Amino acid sequence: xxxxxxxxxxxxxxxxxxxxxxxxxxxxxxxxxxxxxxxxxxxxxxxxxxxxxxxxxxxxxxxxxxxxxxxxxxxxxxxxxxxxxxxxxxxxxxxxxxxxxxxxxxxxxxxxxxxxxxxxxxxxxxxxxxxxxxxxxxxxxxxxxxxxxxxxxxxxxxxxxxxxxxxxxxxxxxxxxxxxxxxxxxxxxxxxxxxxxxxxxxxxxxxx
Length: 208
Prior knowledge:
The chain is mainly alpha-helical. The protein has 8 helices and 2 strands, in the order ααααββαααα. The protein has helices at about 1-25, 25-35, 40-75, 80-90, 115-145, 150-170, 175-190, 190-205; strands at about 95-105, 105-110.
């Protein structure tokens, strides 16, 4: 948590620097840069932020966020707002038609998200791998602990919780990918085991 808080603070400091670069060298943005067909000061500043702050830490950031989400899946309280703020930052890295605005004591980026390369290609892929590993372990735990009926009930409960989680952390369209992972881990991979467990419980109930 401290890592993310520090990261957001440092990112805000970088935005302040870019903001004042634009203010101080406004004439460059208006005349010299367009005349020479160069990137704007903001674009250059964002590229430097991406290169010096975000890119070197992205793997650590993605892993840490996925770990926090897995803690949340296990019922451990986490700072949801902090996680959402970091994930929201991913969508802002490559915004277009952007401007920096001051909100209270913090600076923020506003613009249109024309592409989601950082979010979809980096974080969603990392999140998918992490989630698939989590579901695989969870399905093994469920199949060894519950009866077939209880297994299905626990799967439904987990799936509903995951859908709510997606609404906080991801685009709703990602729910179809979660469904595929669920189907693969909890149904396809365990169909034989479920049949065997069901048979065991039937035999046990007849003996009793």
